[in-house]
């Protein structure tokens, strides 16, 4: 893996403000940490804002140390703000991406622009939540916000986030829901907020709520999800947007849509990376992403012509073939470019279905049936790969007995694809609600199969997410499903495989009834976005080598058990359990003295013949301490996919040293709505 060069000698000397308070109109104060040039009062600089609920004091502190001092050393103010009701900030946070969050951010941006050390120009940068709200706030058009760098984010909160996938209930609704709940329940640091830390913590414990309950209540694309989805009106975003992501991440799709739909200056960058900043992400190659950001900021916050505005709109990594593995240090491949999207270099290759065959010839009119066991999909890994942990899909040969397999003959020449594969299929279902899963794989001569892309569709959503109607059992209809975007090279001698199944566990929960789909081969086809090499590819300059500011020191007090991921099947009962354990142990941050520990377990069980047996349980245990300050938190959430309802059971306990200040359980049920 490519090392990161550590930079300590910058063009401008840096000073840090550990905490300052930004007042809101209602009297609530938000906590901010700022890095800026020492001479910024006499030579003001633009501010770069990262606005998150993930605890600046200890949650993102390692990442912040690499990034914001680097920006400050190059003539910017790096500003990391804890959102209302999180970290060291006051108030309550009652959900994700609420209007209150955006309103507060507008105030923060205006406040930053007025500071004596700020030039009046502000940019926003963020990954995941911070990438989301950068786009959302841009759509509110605050005058001082001049540009955004949005990583691993979405334009569509309903169908391209952790909640629903093709209208199917995602298991991440529970996994991320429990994670977010745990974050929302954590205490502020007494060294920042003083003796009132306990009162602020109790306010959160009793007021921040369990956000996942909203996501189970809102099962359709209603106003709840339209809010904060810039796809509802792309014209709201006028400022320059740099959209960044990776093939191993959960959010590459929105990059292509934003390049196509936004009207202002925009640029897209997609590497092989997981859910991390590209200067330290895996799989590699890592790039000099902070230098790339400086070119963007210099162009749009300082008015310096860096040339970035004249470069191709899209730069993407075409991955070379790689045998399946749960983690890669690097993915071989090469950078390519398109001047716009849809790219003029991308065409279509149509492969028709015949019994177990993909070919350019139209297939015979044969009907094949598939009713997968509920355990189909266990080789898929995580919906969102975090890169630094082994969560990627493994060998797809293990799925061959769970799906209908269609495969080409060995390719006679190499094929490269870039964009969205699509599957058009004529099918019928014997149940009104059913899932269709389509997985695209690369099959090597010896038989190993690497997953390239996949798509999932709740067939009730076959028209779109606003026109939801059950299937008429036995009636054949033509359905089109867009698979996840990808950039991949297939070599001569390899095969292209399409696998069709009726479940995809534990990416999505199963439908309430076991369904059988009848696939009409002669009227079904796979459409690949084939890309020929372009002259523009040869004009690309190499990215600079990755570098950052100095990493934060930390002391390991107790080594945890690390990351574990397993699948086990009881050979007597047939119950299958998918489990992920991540135990980070106990560490001390010398610069604050905080001692932290965190462990979480995600456990999903199911019987292959019973969709209503699906149960997911997620737990988090966290602790924060320094001297007399000792706070502990434990949360557990369970979702049962019952015949008619989603049943959610939650339990939380919180301790101030040995005193239990919260011990609360709750059970809620939400009627299943055609899912």
From TrEMBL:
The keyword Hydrolase applies. Keywords: Hydrolase. Pfam families: Peptidase_S15 (PF02129), PepX_C (PF08530). Residues 294-527 form the Xaa-Pro dipeptidyl-peptidase C-terminal domain. InterPro entries: AB_hydrolase_fold, CocE/Ser_esterase, Galactose-bd-like_sf, Xaa-Pro-like_dom, Xaa-Pro_dipept_C, Xaa-Pro_dipeptidyl-ppase/CocE. The keyword Lipid biosynthesis does not apply. This is CocE/NonD family hydrolase.
């Amino acid at each position: 893996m490519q090392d990161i060069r550590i930079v300590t000698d910058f063009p401008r000397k840096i000073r840090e403000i550990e905490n300052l308070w930004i007042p809101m109109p209602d009297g609530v104060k938000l906590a901010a940490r700022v890095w800026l040039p020492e001479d910024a009062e006499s030579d003001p600089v633009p501010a770069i804002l990262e606005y998150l609920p993930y605890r600046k004091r200890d949650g993102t502190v390692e990442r912040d140390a690499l990034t914001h001092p680097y920006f400050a050393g190059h003539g910017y103010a790096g500003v990391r703000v804890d959102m209302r009701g999180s970290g060291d900030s006051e108030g309550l946070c009652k959900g994700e991406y609420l209007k209150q969050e955006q309103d507060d951010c507008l105030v923060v941006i205006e406040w930053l622009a007025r500071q004596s050390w700020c030039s009046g120009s502000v940019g926003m940068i963020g990954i995941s939540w911070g990438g989301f709200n950068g786009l959302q706030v841009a759509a509110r058009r605050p005058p001082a916000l001049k540009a955004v760098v949005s990583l691993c984010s979405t334009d569509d909160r309903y169908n391209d986030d952790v909640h629903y996938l093709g209208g199917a209930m995602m298991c991440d609704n529970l996994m991320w829901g429990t994670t977010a709940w745990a974050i929302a329940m954590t205490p502020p640091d007494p060294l920042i907020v003083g003796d009132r830390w306990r009162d602020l913590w109790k306010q959160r414990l009793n007021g921040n709520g369990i956000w996942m309950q909203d996501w189970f209540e809102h099962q359709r694309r209603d106003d709840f999800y339209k809010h904060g989805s810039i796809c509802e009106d792309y014209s709201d975003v006028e400022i320059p947007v740099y959209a960044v992501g990776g093939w191993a991440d959960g959010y590459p799709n929105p990059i292509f849509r934003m390049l196509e739909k936004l009207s202002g200056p925009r640029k897209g960058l997609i590497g092989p990376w997981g859910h991390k900043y590209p200067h330290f992400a895996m799989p590699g190659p890592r790039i000099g992403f902070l230098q790339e950001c400086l070119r963007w900021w210099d162009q749009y916050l300082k008015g310096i012509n860096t040339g970035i505005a004249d470069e191709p709109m899209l730069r993407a990594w075409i991955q070379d073939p790689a045998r399946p593995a749960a983690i890669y240090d690097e993915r071989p491949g090469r950078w390519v470019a398109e001047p716009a999207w849809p790219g003029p270099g991308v065409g279509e290759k149509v492969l028709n279905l015949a019994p177990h065959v993909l070919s350019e010839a139209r297939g015979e009119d044969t009907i094949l049936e598939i009713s997968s066991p509920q355990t189909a999909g266990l080789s898929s890994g995580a919906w969102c790969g975090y890169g630094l942990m082994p969560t990627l899909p493994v060998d797809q040969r293990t799925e061959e007995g769970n799906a209908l397999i269609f495969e080409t003959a060995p390719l006679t020449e190499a094929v490269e694809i870039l964009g969205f594969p699509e599957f058009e299929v004529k099918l019928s279902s014997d149940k009104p609600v059913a899932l269709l899963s389509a997985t695209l794989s690369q099959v090597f001569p010896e038989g190993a199969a690497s997953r390239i892309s996949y798509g999932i569709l709740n067939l009730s959503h076959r028209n779109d997410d606003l026109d939801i109607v059950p299937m008429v059992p036995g009636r054949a209809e033509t359905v089109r499903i867009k698979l996840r975007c990808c950039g991949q090279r297939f070599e001569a001698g390899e095969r292209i495989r399409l696998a069709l199944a009726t479940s995809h566990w534990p990416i999505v929960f199963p439908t309430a009834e076991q369904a059988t789909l009848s696939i009409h081969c002669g009227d079904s086809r796979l459409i690949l976005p084939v890309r020929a090499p372009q002259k523009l590819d040869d004009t690309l300059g190499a990215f600079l080598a990755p570098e950052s500011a100095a990493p934060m020191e930390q002391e390991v007090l107790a080594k945890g058990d690390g990351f574990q991921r397993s699948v086990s099947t009881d050979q007597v009962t047939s119950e299958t359990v998918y489990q992920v354990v991540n135990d980070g142990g106990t560490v001390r941050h010398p610069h604050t003295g905080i001692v932290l520990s965190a462990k979480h377990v995600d456990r999903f069980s199911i019987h292959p013949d019973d969709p209503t047996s699906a149960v997911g349980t997620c737990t988090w245990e966290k602790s924060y301490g320094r001297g007399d300050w000792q706070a502990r938190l434990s949360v557990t959430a369970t979702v049962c996919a019952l015949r008619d309802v989603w049943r959610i059971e939650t339990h939380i306990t919180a301790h101030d040293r040995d005193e239990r200040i919260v011990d609360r359980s709750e059970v809620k049920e939400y009627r299943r709505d055609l899912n």
